[in-house]
C-alpha cells in the first residue's frame, strides 16, 4: 500500500495529457490518501490504480511513497497441526478467536492483558484548537473540553486485521451475497463487513440486530461512499466519536453534514468550521452554514461567539451584520481586550454605536495604534472621531 498526496505548487492541469481514468483518480486525491482508499473511491482495480499513480508520479502531479507502518506479523499465531484441514476462512477466523482478540459488542468485555494491543477502533483526533481562516492561529479559549483522543496505532492495526478477514472471506463473494451475509453476521465477520465499499452491504450491517456503536464508529472512520455513511442512524450519529469521525470523513454528504450541524450551538458550528482535521470541502460547507445560522441566532448566542473568539469569528462572517440587541449587550460591558477591539474595527460592517463605545474606552484612548485604526473606519461617528483626534 502506498500513500499519495498532491504536489505543492502551481500545476497547469489543462496542459497535462491525462486519460479519463487518470483525471478521475486525480480528482479523488485530497490530502494524504492511501491507494486502498483510491480503490474504494474510484472502483478501479488495484493494479490499475497503481499504474495510474505511477503515471501521475512520473508527471510530477502527485508524490507517492510506500506506507512505512510496519506490519506486525507477530500478531499471527504460529501454524498448528490439524487432523483435518479446515477451509481457509474458517481457519482464519479460528486463529482470530484463539489469539484472544475476538471483537465484542461491549467494549467493557475486552481482555485486559498488559501485552494485548487495543483492537477496537478508538476515536480520531479532535483537533479543535482554533484556526482562523487559513492561518494556523491557535485559540486557547476554543479548546474542546473533551480530552484529546488521538488516533492510535491500535486503530490501524485493528483495521488491518479485520481487513484480512474481509479479504479472505468476503472479497471473492458477490455484493448481493455479502449483503445477505451481513444481515445475520456476528463477531469479527460483522466487524470486517463494516469495511465493505458497497452501500448495500453497509445498509445490511446497520440493520443487523447485533450492530452497536463500535460498528458505527468503524463505518464512520473507514467507509468511503456518501450513500453508505447516510445509512448511519440519527441516534448513533449523535455519539461524540461517531460525529468526530464523520466530520473527518472526506465523503461526508451535505445532507449528513446538515444533520450533524442542525442541533449544534453557534459556537460549536464555528469550531467545526476552523477544525484543521476536517477536510477543506466540509469546512467550506460549514462556513456557509455558520453565516446562515448567524443571521437567525439569538443575540445572546451571537455575543457569546464574539466574546469567546475575541471577535476573530468575524473573518468568517463577511456579509453578515451585528444586530441592535447584540450591540446593546456589548455596549453594556465596561472593558474589552485589545484583540476584540482590533477584530471588530477590522470588520467592515461594524455598527457605529459599538465603534463610538470603543472610542470612550481607556484601552483605546491610551493606545495610539488602536486610535489610529479606529479613526480609519468609515462607520465611526463624527463626534467620536473628533474626540479621538483631539487627544
Structure description:
- It is elongated and about 80 Å long.
- The protein has 22 helices and three strands.
- It has three domains: 2-66; 140-286, no CATH class; 321-389, no CATH class.
- 50% of the residues lie in helices and 3% in strands.
- Strands 2-1-3 form a three-stranded antiparallel β-sheet.
- The longest helix is centred in the middle third of the chain and has 18 residues, at 153-170.
Work out the number of β strands: 3
Could you state the order of secondary-structure elements as H and E?
Answer: EHEHHEHHHHHHHHHHHHHHHHHHH
Largest sheet: 3 strands, antiparallel
Shape by Cα distribution:
elongated
- Beta-strand residue fraction: under 5%
Count of structural domains: 3
Summing up helix and strand content along with how strands pair, one would put the structural category as mainly alpha
Helix share of residues? 40-55%
Rg over alpha carbons: 27 Å
In the sheet with the most strands, the strands line up as: 2-1-3
Poorly predicted segments: 68-86, 97-141, 143-150
**Number of helical runs?**
22
**Please, what is the average pLDDT?**
79
Distance between the termini: 68 Å
How is this fold's topology laid out?
Blueprint: E1 2-6, H1 20-27, E2 33-34, H2 35-42, H3 46-59, E3 62-66, H4 88-98, H5 153-170, H6 175-182, H7 187-193, H8 199-206, H9 213-222, H10 226-230, H11 234-237, H12 240-247, H13 254-261, H14 266-273, H15 280-296, H16 299-308, H17 324-331, H18 338-345, H19 352-359, H20 362-365, H21 368-375, H22 382-389
Antiparallel strand pairs: 1-2, 1-3
Helix pairs in contact: 1-3, 2-3, 5-7, 6-8, 9-12, 13-15, 14-15, 16-17
Amino acid at each position: 500500500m502506498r500513500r499519495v498526496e498532491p504536489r505543492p505548487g502551481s500545476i497547469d492541469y489543462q496542459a497535462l495529457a491525462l486519460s479519463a481514468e487518470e483525471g478521475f483518480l486525480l480528482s479523488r486525491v485530497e490530502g494524504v490518501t492511501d491507494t486502498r482508499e483510491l480503490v474504494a473511491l474510484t472502483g478501479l482495480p488495484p493494479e490499475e490504480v497503481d499504474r495510474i499513480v505511477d503515471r501521475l508520479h512520473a508527471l510530477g502531479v502527485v508524490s507517492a511513497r510506500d506506507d512505512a507502518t510496519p506490519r506486525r506479523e507477530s500478531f499471527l499465531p504460529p501454524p498448528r497441526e490439524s487432523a483435518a484441514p479446515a477451509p481457509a476462512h474458517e481457519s482464519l477466523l479460528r486463529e482470530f478467536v484463539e489469539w484472544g482478540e475476538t471483537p465484542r459488542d461491549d467494549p467493557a468485555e475486552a481482555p485486559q492483558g498488559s501485552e494485548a494491543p487495543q483492537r477496537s477502533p478508538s476515536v480520531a483526533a479532535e483537533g479543535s484548537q482554533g484556526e482562523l481562516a487559513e492561518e494556523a492561529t491557535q485559540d486557547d479559549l476554543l479548546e474542546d473540553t473533551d480530552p484529546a483522543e488521538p488516533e492510535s496505532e491500535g486503530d490501524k492495526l485493528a483495521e488491518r486485521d479485520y481487513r484480512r478477514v474481509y479479504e479472505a472471506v468476503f472479497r471473492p463473494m458477490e455484493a448481493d451475497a455479502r449483503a445477505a451475509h451481513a444481515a445475520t453476521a456476528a463477531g469479527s465477520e460483522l466487524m470486517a463487513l463494516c469495511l465493505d465499499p458497497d452501500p448495500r452491504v453497509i445498509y445490511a450491517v446497520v440493520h443487523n440486530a447485533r450492530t452497536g456503536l463500535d460498528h458505527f464508529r468503524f463505518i464512520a472512520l473507514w467507509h468511503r461512499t456518501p450513500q453508505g455513511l447516510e445509512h448511519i442512524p440519527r441516534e448513533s450519529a449523535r455519539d461524540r466519536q461517531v460525529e468526530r469521525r464523520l466530520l473527518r470523513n472526506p465523503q461526508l454528504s451535505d445532507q449528513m453534514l446538515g444533520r450533524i450541524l442542525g442541533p449544534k450551538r453557534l459556537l460549536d458550528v464555528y469550531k467545526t468550521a476552523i477544525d484543521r482535521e476536517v477536510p477543506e470541502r466540509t469546512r467550506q460547507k460549514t462556513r456557509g452554514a455558520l453565516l446562515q445560522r448567524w443571521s437567525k441566532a439569538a443575540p445572546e448566542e451571537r455575543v457569546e461567539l464574539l466574546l469567546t473568539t475575541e471577535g476573530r469569528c468575524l473573518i468568517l462572517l463577511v456579509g453578515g451584520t451585528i444586530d441592535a440587541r447584540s450591540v446593546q449587550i456589548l455596549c453594556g460591558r465596561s472593558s474589552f481586550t485589545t484583540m476584540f477591539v482590533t477584530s471588530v474595527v477590522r470588520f467592515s460592517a461594524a455598527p457605529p454605536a459599538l465603534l463610538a463605545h470603543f472610542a470612550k474606552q481607556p484601552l483605546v484612548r491610551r493606545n495610539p495604534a488602536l486610535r489610529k485604526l479606529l479613526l480609519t473606519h468609515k462607520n465611526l461617528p463624527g463626534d467620536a472621531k473628533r474626540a479621538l483626534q483631539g487627544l
